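ok trying this again, last paste got cut off
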Amino acid sequence: MMASNRTEAGQVISAVAQAEGGTTKGSKSAQMQSELSKQRNFEEVSANVGSKLDAAPSSITKEDAQAVHGAETRVSRGQQPLSGSISSHAQHEAAVNKGATTTRNTTASLDPTTQSQLDRQANYEDAASKVGGKLVNEPGNITKEEADTLHSREQRAFGTTEKGGLASQAQHQVAENEGATTTGQSTTASTNPNTQSQLDRQANFEEAAAEVGSKLASNPESITKEDGDLLHSREHRAFGATQTGGLAAQTQHQAAENAKP
């Protein structure tokens, strides 16, 4: 049923792209493709982590928790996963596993190390909820202090920050906000060279993602190695890394499937 839904979604996107005269950055079909890619990524990551949660919760790592948290946050447009979601379950199990001394039952008390880790994650989720809401509803009001706080709390909670994750998006938005000079009702971009270069790299990635993503949804058999390499290269240049299970990874996987005799 899921594969059927994906095929139908791809057909709808293809029809919209044809009506628009092709998929271009910012077009409705490009936005639809972006949302579909995020949904696919979340489904794949959550299925993988969910199976580990069911079969071997002691094998859940902080990387698993980060992956599903990032995918769920992106698919919900920056809103933080609710309590009881697969993300919160994975984060809890990862913290318990790191603590190592906690017995697995609902009444077990947490040792200080595990409790400290859960507190750090709670602090991150609190900041992420506030900043995520502003990114969706009022991105022009994101401040450097908010982005720095989110980055710091994510680093403390998980030991690293996710490339292309919420903190990264907030910092990028701050760079855009600081690069804009507003005069009356008009806004003219007065972006410093470093910020402009970063924006250009992200625009190049988004352009490639829209084009290749449309092919992946409507005609996956036409995906080539060159498509996968191009998307991988532009994503790495834009964000410094490529997302596990993201669009570039999906494209490279499809290209490998297509290359099989």
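PB: full thing came through this time. The chain is about 70% helix and 5% strand.
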